[in-house]
Amino acid sequence: APGKPGSRGLLGFAPVPTSSDDAFTVPPGYETQVLIPWGTPLSPRGPKWRKDGSNTAAEQERQIGMNHDGMHFFPLGRGKEGNRRGLLVLNHEYVDQQLLFPDGPTEMTREKVAKALAAHGVSVVEVEERKGVWQVVESRYARKVTGTTPVEFSGPVKATHPKLRSNNAPMGTLNNCSHGVTPWGTYLTCEENWNGYFGTEDSSWSPTPEQARYGINAGGFGYRWHLADERFDVARNGNELNRFGWVVEIDPTNPKAKPVKRTALGRFKHEGCTVVESRGRVVAYSGDDQDGDYIYKFVGDGNWRAHRALGRSPLDHGTLYVAKFEDDGRGTWLPLSFGTGPLTKKNGWQDQADVLIRTREAADALGATKMDRPEWIAVNPKNKDVYCTLTNGTGWPGEANPRTPNPYGHIIRWAEKGKDHTATTFTWDIFVLAGDPAYDSSVDLNEDNIFGSPDGLWFDDEGRLWIQTDISNSSQNLASRGYDNIANNAMLAADPRTGEIRRFLVGPRGCEITGVITTPDRRTMFVNVQHPGEASAAWGSPSPANPRAVSNWPDFDPEGRPRSATVVIRRTDGGVIGA
Ligand code: FEO
Ligand code: CA
Ligand code: CA
Ligand code: CA
């Protein structure tokens, strides 16, 4: 029968009930293993994790960072060996300074800023299944890309651009949320809420309109790094922030290669960067996760293999577009090209570099459609439909954001004209409106699949759509927000052919679920648990004296602290995950 394990659709597991437990729960017939929690040495011989948060900045440089997010598995070895051995490459979005330091963030020092920067960025770690257990192994590829790693700029915006000249050399990537993978085997890490790291004590400073459009203000998100490191003081080093908001390319098999910021893809709060090919060209989709911001795509010029053959990056040559959704179910991609439409000298635009540095303002000028916080984008391998999570938001005008306000979010879907990702028109519909019918009768979900605030989104090769949720801790488990029945964050699987959705796992308290990938045989899945134990309106606030106030996952050590981690999920019968 539909909805039951063994039915003929893509989903063959029993739905997991909602839960507010401090546990990671999977369906019957599945097993889990915690891998690479924050602080795990990149090499088995590296510095050991200290559970009181006292690892130094230098030690953190050689350990897995904090707050795991987007992730990919690059198989190593030949054929089937790649199902048991590979490089896990994962983002570390931000740091919780309450957990990062033994005494919390009260006093900010140079060493604390250095440790925080070392816990950001990207980890490349080699993992292997030995005797049924996944483990970190010694590797020539293991590396960290952090907030201080030297980086290059490529594409229309050069490192020498007057707006990018700062008091320090180009370095670092910050707030790496989701990611992408190129057809030539590199990893793209995306800079999302980078604005929050900058601030100043200078009361004479105020943001320019250009800075304000990106959310720059004197207080930032409260990291207070600017008190100990001039790099983050907007009054003293104001151009440093123009080096952030980009997509950054990393070659996981060349640990000596500098990460490259690919400026042709635009500057905003890039959630992710989903790359597909169409007619030999490369196309990259990316959401700008801010309430009322936009969905973009980059379309490469010419054949990507031809660019590579000439030693050029296919991501440096092409056109950036922003989406406009019409209420009749049609849509258009508007080019952000200097000299086109309103983006002229007469209107104050200098050149393509200027358009890219001020991507948001350029998209405003084009009249793109404001959206309810665009998050991950995934492409159905079976029919090329494109899906984007809109996590929650104001409920901006137009049918593409159909609920006002929109506390639960939705997933929008579009088909490019002629199933060609380079097309400039498309048709769209709403795949699912998230929520709880107990609070919103327009929601067509039930106890097996109620969810809210969809964020992570990924298709496996068989066409299962995996949906991950990020209900913020101001709403998670709270009846006052209509989120008590939905409870902890979760991951669901959907069959896009039938519309069926089932809850596959539920995470521990205070966390979000984000980042999912399988081995090529789809029999091992890796999923990230981010910020377990984050301060929560449902359970309280951690402090240096009680870092376990909300959660003690995954160690459950009475003297430890909650840690973000990757969870390995397998079927006890060795079958395909989700089938
Ligand atoms: Fe980092 Fe928009 O989630
Ligand atoms: Ca997050
Ligand atoms: Ca996210
Ligand atoms: Ca989110």
TrEMBL record:
<dbReference type="InterPro" id="IPR006311">
    <property type="entry name" value="TAT_signal"/>
</dbReference>
<protein>
    <submittedName>
        <fullName>DUF839 domain-containing protein</fullName>
    </submittedName>
</protein>
<dbReference type="Pfam" id="PF05787">
    <property type="entry name" value="PhoX"/>
</dbReference>
<feature type="region of interest" description="Disordered">
    <location>
        <begin position="35"/>
        <end position="58"/>
    </location>
</feature>
<dbReference type="InterPro" id="IPR008557">
    <property type="entry name" value="PhoX"/>
</dbReference>
